[in-house]
Amino acid sequence: LPRAPSALLDAAWAAGQRDLYLQRALPLARALVLAADSAAAPALAGADIKLLSRCACALDGAADNPAGEREARRFRELAAAGHDRHAQMALGLWCARMRADGTRTAVGAGSANFKKAIRWLTMAGEQGLAEAWYALSRIYIKPEFSQRNVLDAHRFLERAAEMGYRDAQLECGNAAWRARRGNETNDVRAVYWMQKAAAGGCAQAASALHKIAPHGLAGALAGTPALAVRAGHPLLAARLELAALFHLSRAEALLLDVRSADQGHCLVVDIRASYGRSKRRLVLVDTVQQRQALDRIGRVFDNVDCGPGGPEGNYRQRLYRLKTLGTVAVAAPRTGGAGGQRYDLAA
Length: 347
Known about the structure:
17 helices
C-alpha cells in the first residue's frame, strides 16, 4: 500500500470509523483479491494482510447481505493464509459454526467442519491468541464432535487460562471446585483460578471466592506480639501477628503449621489432626502487605517443628503460655519509677 493511504486507513480504524474505513479500504482489498487470484500471484505484504483482515471484520459489522459475507470470508481466507491470527480465529469459528464460548451460530450454510476449525484455531493459538485455545476446548466437549475428548478439552482450557483469558480462568476454577470431592486439595486450585479471574474483573469469580473462602471474624486473642517478644516468646509473637492478619481463631493461631499452610495465594488452615472440633478452611492472601508479612513470619518458623514434639509443646502448653501472657498484660503496672512515668502497652 502507498504510505499516505495506509496512514489514513490506520487513523480511521483507530477512531472506530468502520464505514469510512470500508469506503477507503474496500477497493484496495478487492484489488488484492484479484491479484491473489491471478496466475502469478505475488506474496502479500504485512500491510496488505492487515487490510484484508480489518476489511473482513468491518464487513461483519455492516448490514447483512450475502455478497458481503462471501467477500468477507474471501478476505479472511487470504489473511489467515498470510498468518494473521485474528483472521485464523474468525475463520476457525466460522468453520465450527459457533462463537468463542461454544454457542451455536446460524452463520454459513451446511454443517460444521470441526477438522478445519481445529486447524485454524490451533494456528491462531500458537500465535498467542488465548481465546483460540478456549474455543478449542469448547469444540472438544461438544457431543456432536466425533473425536470428543474431555482431557484434551481441559488441557486447552488450562492453556487459555494460563495465558490470562478470563472466561477460561473462571471455568478452570469451577472445574477444580467441582472436583474437590475426589481430592479436597482441589479447592486450593479453585481459589487460584478464581483469584485470577476476579483480578481481571469477573464479578462471578469474586462472588464465588466469598463463598469458597469467606473472611473470618477478627480474633480477640489475649496478648500482643510486642509483649510476647518481651516475654521471650518469638514463636508465639509470630502466631499472634498471623492471627491478627488473617482473622484466625485461638486454636488455629496456636496450632497452625505455617510452612505447610502457605500456598502462595492462600492459607490452608487445617488443624483437624490436633483439634478435632475444627474444620478445614481457606484464607485468601489478598494484599502485598499480607504476602510480605507472611513471608517474614514463615522465616521465623524455618527449621522449627510445629508439632507437639517441637519447642512450642502441645496445645495445652501453648494455651497456658498465651493465657499467662494475657494475665501479664492485665497485671502489668501502668506507672513506673520514682518519677511516675506512664507506660502504655500496645493493644
